[in-house]
Request: fold
Amino acid sequence: MNNLSKLFTNLLTVTLFVGLMFNDQLRSESEPYTPTTMITGANRGIGLEFTKQYLQKGWKVIATCRTPDRADELNNLKKNYPDHLSIMQLDVTDHNRIDELALQLSGIPVDVLLNNAGISGGSSNQIFGTMDYKVYEDVLAVNTIGPLKMAEAFYPHVKGSQLKKIITVSSSEGSIETAFKRGGGRLFFYRSSKTALNMLMVNLALQLKSRGIAVGMVNPGATDTDFMTGLPFPMRKPEVAVADMIRNIENITVENTAAYINYNGKPVPW
Ligand code: NDP
Reply:
Protein backbone atom coordinates (compact mmCIF):
# COMPACT_ATOMS: atom_id res chain seq x y z
CA MET A 1 0.00 0.00 0.00
CA ASN A 2 1.52 3.39 -0.97
CA ASN A 3 1.49 6.45 1.31
CA LEU A 4 -1.47 8.05 -0.44
CA SER A 5 -3.73 5.03 -0.04
CA LYS A 6 -2.57 4.67 3.63
CA LEU A 7 -3.57 8.29 4.25
CA PHE A 8 -6.91 7.68 2.54
CA THR A 9 -7.58 4.55 4.66
CA ASN A 10 -6.71 6.42 7.89
CA LEU A 11 -8.95 9.33 6.94
CA LEU A 12 -11.81 6.95 6.18
CA THR A 13 -11.39 5.20 9.57
CA VAL A 14 -11.39 8.51 11.47
CA THR A 15 -14.44 9.74 9.54
CA LEU A 16 -16.34 6.53 10.26
CA PHE A 17 -15.40 6.67 13.96
CA VAL A 18 -16.46 10.31 14.37
CA GLY A 19 -19.63 9.55 12.40
CA LEU A 20 -20.49 6.68 14.74
CA MET A 21 -19.84 8.81 17.84
CA PHE A 22 -21.99 11.60 16.47
CA ASN A 23 -24.71 9.14 15.56
CA ASP A 24 -24.67 7.74 19.12
CA GLN A 25 -24.95 11.22 20.54
CA LEU A 26 -27.81 12.06 18.21
CA ARG A 27 -29.57 8.82 19.13
CA SER A 28 -29.31 9.40 22.89
CA GLU A 29 -30.54 12.98 22.46
CA SER A 30 -33.51 11.97 20.35
CA GLU A 31 -34.54 8.83 22.29
CA PRO A 32 -37.36 9.54 24.74
CA TYR A 33 -36.42 9.22 28.42
CA THR A 34 -37.73 6.07 30.09
CA PRO A 35 -38.61 6.74 33.73
CA THR A 36 -37.99 4.14 36.42
CA THR A 37 -39.97 3.31 39.53
CA MET A 38 -38.75 1.17 42.38
CA ILE A 39 -41.55 -0.53 44.32
CA THR A 40 -41.45 -2.31 47.67
CA GLY A 41 -43.77 -5.26 48.33
CA ALA A 42 -44.26 -5.70 44.60
CA ASN A 43 -45.14 -9.41 44.61
CA ARG A 44 -48.85 -9.13 45.43
CA GLY A 45 -51.75 -6.79 46.10
CA ILE A 46 -51.34 -3.11 45.36
CA GLY A 47 -47.56 -3.39 44.76
CA LEU A 48 -48.05 -6.02 42.04
CA GLU A 49 -50.73 -3.89 40.39
CA PHE A 50 -48.43 -0.83 40.47
CA THR A 51 -45.78 -2.97 38.77
CA LYS A 52 -48.20 -4.06 36.02
CA GLN A 53 -49.54 -0.58 35.35
CA TYR A 54 -46.15 1.17 35.28
CA LEU A 55 -44.85 -1.51 32.88
CA GLN A 56 -47.92 -0.98 30.68
CA LYS A 57 -47.08 2.73 30.65
CA GLY A 58 -43.64 1.87 29.26
CA TRP A 59 -41.72 2.56 32.47
CA LYS A 60 -38.86 0.51 33.84
CA VAL A 61 -39.76 -1.15 37.14
CA ILE A 62 -37.43 -2.35 39.86
CA ALA A 63 -39.85 -4.64 41.67
CA THR A 64 -38.64 -5.61 45.12
CA CYS A 65 -40.04 -8.33 47.34
CA ARG A 66 -39.00 -10.53 50.23
CA THR A 67 -38.85 -13.83 48.33
CA PRO A 68 -38.42 -13.51 44.55
CA ASP A 69 -38.34 -17.31 44.17
CA ARG A 70 -41.96 -17.47 45.27
CA ALA A 71 -43.11 -14.33 43.42
CA ASP A 72 -44.80 -16.29 40.62
CA GLU A 73 -46.78 -13.41 39.16
CA LEU A 74 -43.73 -11.15 39.02
CA ASN A 75 -41.65 -13.90 37.44
CA ASN A 76 -44.34 -14.41 34.80
CA LEU A 77 -44.44 -10.68 34.08
CA LYS A 78 -40.68 -10.78 33.53
CA LYS A 79 -41.27 -12.99 30.46
CA ASN A 80 -43.29 -10.19 28.82
CA TYR A 81 -41.05 -7.34 29.97
CA PRO A 82 -37.52 -8.80 30.03
CA ASP A 83 -35.80 -5.44 29.52
CA HIS A 84 -38.05 -3.24 31.63
CA LEU A 85 -38.66 -5.36 34.72
CA SER A 86 -36.03 -6.30 37.27
CA ILE A 87 -36.91 -8.27 40.36
CA MET A 88 -34.79 -7.70 43.46
CA GLN A 89 -34.87 -9.31 46.89
CA LEU A 90 -35.67 -6.81 49.63
CA ASP A 91 -37.16 -6.93 53.10
CA VAL A 92 -37.74 -3.33 54.12
CA THR A 93 -36.87 -4.10 57.75
CA ASP A 94 -33.38 -5.29 56.74
CA HIS A 95 -31.38 -2.08 56.65
CA ASN A 96 -28.13 -3.77 55.65
CA ARG A 97 -29.84 -5.24 52.62
CA ILE A 98 -31.36 -1.85 51.74
CA ASP A 99 -27.85 -0.31 51.79
CA GLU A 100 -26.45 -3.23 49.80
CA LEU A 101 -29.14 -2.86 47.11
CA ALA A 102 -28.62 0.92 46.96
CA LEU A 103 -24.93 0.28 46.32
CA GLN A 104 -25.66 -2.44 43.77
CA LEU A 105 -27.92 -0.02 41.88
CA SER A 106 -25.69 3.03 42.24
CA GLY A 107 -25.83 5.29 39.21
CA ILE A 108 -29.27 4.01 38.23
CA PRO A 109 -31.90 6.77 38.39
CA VAL A 110 -35.12 6.12 40.31
CA ASP A 111 -37.77 8.61 39.20
CA VAL A 112 -40.44 7.42 41.61
CA LEU A 113 -39.40 5.62 44.75
CA LEU A 114 -42.62 3.89 45.74
CA ASN A 115 -42.84 2.73 49.34
CA ASN A 116 -45.76 0.35 49.19
CA ALA A 117 -44.95 -2.57 51.53
CA GLY A 118 -47.18 -2.54 54.58
CA ILE A 119 -48.70 -4.73 57.27
CA SER A 120 -51.71 -4.24 59.52
CA GLY A 121 -50.41 -6.25 62.47
CA GLY A 122 -53.72 -8.13 62.72
CA SER A 123 -56.67 -6.56 64.53
CA SER A 124 -56.66 -9.09 67.41
CA ASN A 125 -53.07 -8.15 68.40
CA GLN A 126 -53.93 -4.51 69.02
CA ILE A 127 -56.86 -4.61 71.42
CA PHE A 128 -56.59 -2.37 74.47
CA GLY A 129 -55.88 -4.59 77.47
CA THR A 130 -54.09 -7.33 75.50
CA MET A 131 -51.71 -5.43 73.25
CA ASP A 132 -48.92 -7.45 71.66
CA TYR A 133 -46.07 -4.95 71.69
CA LYS A 134 -43.72 -7.13 69.64
CA VAL A 135 -46.25 -6.89 66.81
CA TYR A 136 -46.27 -3.09 67.24
CA GLU A 137 -42.48 -3.07 66.72
CA ASP A 138 -42.93 -5.10 63.53
CA VAL A 139 -45.65 -2.77 62.22
CA LEU A 140 -43.49 0.29 62.86
CA ALA A 141 -40.45 -1.39 61.28
CA VAL A 142 -42.33 -2.09 58.03
CA ASN A 143 -44.79 0.82 57.71
CA THR A 144 -42.90 3.71 59.28
CA ILE A 145 -39.17 3.13 59.55
CA GLY A 146 -38.87 1.16 56.29
CA PRO A 147 -40.00 4.05 54.04
CA LEU A 148 -37.62 6.48 55.81
CA LYS A 149 -34.67 4.13 55.44
CA MET A 150 -35.56 3.54 51.78
CA ALA A 151 -35.68 7.30 51.17
CA GLU A 152 -32.33 7.74 52.86
CA ALA A 153 -30.61 4.93 50.98
CA PHE A 154 -32.08 5.71 47.56
CA TYR A 155 -31.85 9.52 47.80
CA PRO A 156 -28.93 9.64 45.30
CA HIS A 157 -30.89 7.53 42.81
CA VAL A 158 -33.95 9.78 43.10
CA LYS A 159 -31.80 12.93 42.94
CA GLY A 160 -30.15 11.62 39.77
CA SER A 161 -33.47 11.02 38.00
CA GLN A 162 -35.65 13.37 35.97
CA LEU A 163 -38.93 13.17 37.92
CA LYS A 164 -37.43 13.03 41.45
CA LYS A 165 -40.32 11.73 43.58
CA ILE A 166 -40.47 9.83 46.86
CA ILE A 167 -43.99 8.49 47.30
CA THR A 168 -45.41 6.35 50.07
CA VAL A 169 -48.68 4.47 50.19
CA SER A 170 -50.17 5.76 53.41
CA SER A 171 -53.77 5.33 54.56
CA SER A 172 -56.66 7.48 55.66
CA GLU A 173 -56.41 5.36 58.83
CA GLY A 174 -53.38 7.52 59.67
CA SER A 175 -55.48 10.69 59.57
CA ILE A 176 -56.23 12.04 63.05
CA GLU A 177 -59.15 14.14 61.81
CA THR A 178 -60.69 11.09 60.11
CA ALA A 179 -60.33 9.06 63.32
CA PHE A 180 -62.76 11.45 65.03
CA LYS A 181 -65.32 10.58 62.35
CA ARG A 182 -64.65 6.85 62.13
CA GLY A 183 -64.27 6.23 65.85
CA GLY A 184 -61.50 4.68 67.90
CA GLY A 185 -60.58 1.59 69.87
CA ARG A 186 -59.17 -0.38 66.93
CA LEU A 187 -55.99 -0.86 64.90
CA PHE A 188 -53.89 1.18 67.33
CA PHE A 189 -50.60 -0.04 65.80
CA TYR A 190 -51.56 0.31 62.16
CA ARG A 191 -53.23 3.68 62.48
CA SER A 192 -50.40 5.23 64.50
CA SER A 193 -47.75 3.73 62.18
CA LYS A 194 -49.31 5.61 59.26
CA THR A 195 -49.72 8.83 61.28
CA ALA A 196 -46.01 8.73 62.18
CA LEU A 197 -45.16 7.87 58.58
CA ASN A 198 -47.04 10.98 57.44
CA MET A 199 -45.02 13.20 59.78
CA LEU A 200 -41.75 11.62 58.63
CA MET A 201 -42.66 12.29 55.02
CA VAL A 202 -43.79 15.88 55.64
CA ASN A 203 -40.53 16.48 57.48
CA LEU A 204 -38.60 15.01 54.55
CA ALA A 205 -40.66 16.93 51.99
CA LEU A 206 -39.81 20.23 53.64
CA GLN A 207 -36.12 19.32 53.72
CA LEU A 208 -35.87 18.07 50.14
CA LYS A 209 -38.00 20.73 48.42
CA SER A 210 -35.03 23.03 47.74
CA ARG A 211 -33.21 20.06 46.19
CA GLY A 212 -35.99 19.60 43.65
CA ILE A 213 -37.36 16.38 45.14
CA ALA A 214 -41.11 15.96 45.67
CA VAL A 215 -42.35 13.83 48.55
CA GLY A 216 -45.94 12.69 48.87
CA MET A 217 -48.39 10.21 50.28
CA VAL A 218 -51.25 8.49 48.48
CA ASN A 219 -54.27 6.69 49.90
CA PRO A 220 -55.72 3.81 47.85
CA GLY A 221 -59.04 3.65 49.72
CA ALA A 222 -60.44 0.29 50.78
CA THR A 223 -59.00 -2.08 48.18
CA ASP A 224 -59.64 -5.77 47.67
CA THR A 225 -56.27 -7.38 48.53
CA ASP A 226 -55.09 -10.01 51.06
CA PHE A 227 -54.68 -7.09 53.45
CA MET A 228 -58.46 -6.69 53.68
CA THR A 229 -59.48 -10.36 53.60
CA GLY A 230 -62.74 -11.00 55.46
CA LEU A 231 -63.68 -7.37 56.05
CA PRO A 232 -67.39 -6.80 55.50
CA PHE A 233 -67.51 -3.61 53.47
CA PRO A 234 -67.36 -2.68 49.78
CA MET A 235 -63.90 -2.55 48.32
CA ARG A 236 -62.42 -1.26 45.10
CA LYS A 237 -60.48 -3.41 42.69
CA PRO A 238 -56.67 -3.00 42.82
CA GLU A 239 -56.72 -2.05 39.11
CA VAL A 240 -58.93 0.95 39.87
CA ALA A 241 -57.18 1.96 43.10
CA VAL A 242 -53.76 1.88 41.45
CA ALA A 243 -54.87 3.78 38.34
CA ASP A 244 -56.18 6.48 40.69
CA MET A 245 -52.93 6.56 42.68
CA ILE A 246 -50.73 6.74 39.56
CA ARG A 247 -52.74 9.76 38.40
CA ASN A 248 -52.36 11.33 41.84
CA ILE A 249 -48.61 10.61 41.91
CA GLU A 250 -48.31 12.41 38.55
CA ASN A 251 -49.83 15.45 40.25
CA ILE A 252 -47.35 15.48 43.13
CA THR A 253 -44.55 17.94 42.39
CA VAL A 254 -42.18 20.15 44.39
CA GLU A 255 -44.86 22.86 44.25
CA ASN A 256 -47.32 20.79 46.32
CA THR A 257 -44.72 18.60 48.05
CA ALA A 258 -45.96 16.97 51.28
CA ALA A 259 -49.31 16.32 49.62
CA TYR A 260 -51.41 13.54 51.18
CA ILE A 261 -53.81 12.62 48.41
CA ASN A 262 -56.92 10.51 48.60
CA TYR A 263 -57.81 8.15 45.73
CA ASN A 264 -60.34 10.69 44.45
CA GLY A 265 -57.64 13.34 44.04
CA LYS A 266 -58.71 15.36 47.09
CA PRO A 267 -56.41 15.97 50.07
CA VAL A 268 -56.78 13.65 53.06
CA PRO A 269 -57.17 15.79 56.19
CA TRP A 270 -54.25 15.37 58.61
P1 NDP B 1 -51.06 -6.93 50.87
O1 NDP B 1 -51.15 -7.55 52.22
O2 NDP B 1 -51.87 -7.47 49.76
O3 NDP B 1 -49.52 -6.86 50.40
C1 NDP B 1 -48.55 -6.38 51.29
C2 NDP B 1 -47.21 -6.38 50.58
O4 NDP B 1 -46.22 -5.87 51.51
C3 NDP B 1 -46.77 -7.79 50.20
O5 NDP B 1 -46.09 -7.73 48.99
C4 NDP B 1 -45.83 -8.16 51.32
O6 NDP B 1 -44.84 -9.12 50.97
C5 NDP B 1 -45.16 -6.82 51.55
N1 NDP B 1 -44.42 -6.80 52.80
C6 NDP B 1 -44.85 -7.03 54.05
N2 NDP B 1 -43.83 -6.97 54.93
C7 NDP B 1 -42.72 -6.68 54.19
C8 NDP B 1 -41.36 -6.47 54.50
N3 NDP B 1 -40.90 -6.57 55.75
N4 NDP B 1 -40.51 -6.18 53.49
C9 NDP B 1 -40.94 -6.09 52.22
N5 NDP B 1 -42.20 -6.29 51.86
C10 NDP B 1 -43.09 -6.57 52.84
O7 NDP B 1 -51.43 -5.39 51.13
P2 NDP B 1 -51.90 -4.25 50.12
O8 NDP B 1 -51.34 -4.50 48.79
O9 NDP B 1 -53.36 -4.05 50.27
O10 NDP B 1 -51.20 -2.99 50.81
C11 NDP B 1 -50.17 -2.25 50.20
C12 NDP B 1 -50.07 -0.91 50.92
O11 NDP B 1 -51.32 -0.22 50.82
C13 NDP B 1 -49.77 -1.02 52.41
O12 NDP B 1 -48.84 -0.04 52.77
C14 NDP B 1 -51.12 -0.74 53.08
O13 NDP B 1 -50.98 -0.18 54.36
C15 NDP B 1 -51.70 0.26 52.10
N6 NDP B 1 -53.16 0.39 52.15
C16 NDP B 1 -53.95 -0.66 51.73
C17 NDP B 1 -55.32 -0.54 51.78
C18 NDP B 1 -56.23 -1.63 51.33
O14 NDP B 1 -57.46 -1.45 51.46
N7 NDP B 1 -55.75 -2.74 50.78
C19 NDP B 1 -55.96 0.71 52.25
C20 NDP B 1 -55.05 1.73 52.67
C21 NDP B 1 -53.69 1.57 52.59
P3 NDP B 1 -44.99 -10.71 51.38
O15 NDP B 1 -45.80 -11.34 50.29
O16 NDP B 1 -43.58 -11.17 51.44
O17 NDP B 1 -45.69 -10.76 52.71
About this structure: The longest strand covers residues 60-65. The domain at 35-261 is CATH 3.40.50.720 (Rossmann fold). Residues 11-27 have pLDDT under 50 and may be disordered.
